[in-house]
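Q: Could you fold this chain for me?
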Amino acid sequence: MAAAEGPSNEAVDGTAPAIVALGGGHGLATTLRAARDYARSITGIVSVGDDGGSSGRLRAEFGVTPPGDLRRCLSALADGDTLLARSLEHRFSDGTLTGHPIGNLLLIGLAFAADDLQTAIDEVGRLVGAAGRVFPASEVPVTLIADSDQGTLAGQVTIERATGIGNLRFDPSNARSPVDAIKAVVDADQIIIGPGSLFTSVLACALMPDIRSALTKATAQRVFVANVANEKGDARGFGLREHVEALIDHGLGVDVVLASDASAEAHLEIPGLPPIVTADVAAADGWSHDPAKLGAVLGRLFRQNR
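A: Sure. Below is the predicted structure, expressed as structure tokens.
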């Protein structure tokens, strides 16, 4: 097992990589913030199976692609000095809009005006000075389906509350991914998978048929960023070994696993699985990643692989 060196403040230069990050929720947003410190270009590809919270309400009412994780990623890439960038995460606290962030409403409103979600995403990215592009993992909203201890389940919120999850799939099963997102995966220098909820964020993105096919064609270094802690959501009962085995069982190979050295489990050798690199990447809260630490280690992994 290798131990990664500590964070570095090396400037991005002409040899910096083109990064593609896959996942959803807060985990993908953290990875995108990390990539800003060392990447030449950044592409975030976001799971769109969400059916809870503001996203779920908008999806149910208007039949739209859930915007919440797309918004988080645009916020992560935004120029924080602009008023609009700071406003994306503002959430209404009363009235009929209670619980809705401004960014969700902006994305849906622009998507209706343009009759195209990707146009809306790119326009919000332009307005907030985003340091990269964001794509939904599929061109239409999908429903997550999985086997569990309770039988076959459907829906992100339902799956997150269950145990013994496996065999994740989608309805519709043949949903297509944006062409530019597929091209970004194939052309990437480094592909980062995770962190985040294993089934409802990470696999919900990477298993989309076009994305999974692109991953098999890509020659980039594929890094799985393991969660710092696994007590939340659909990860209950899954440790580091189970996370990596679930990737492999679903046909997703990775070249290296990056685990936080805050977890004693990460120091265990796991025969037959990809190499594990441990590093201090945990944030002060003890369960999430620190973007600056994560970016320094991911950048070093890329340079060591060249």
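A (continued): The domain at 2-47+177-305 is CATH 3.40.50 (Rossmann fold).
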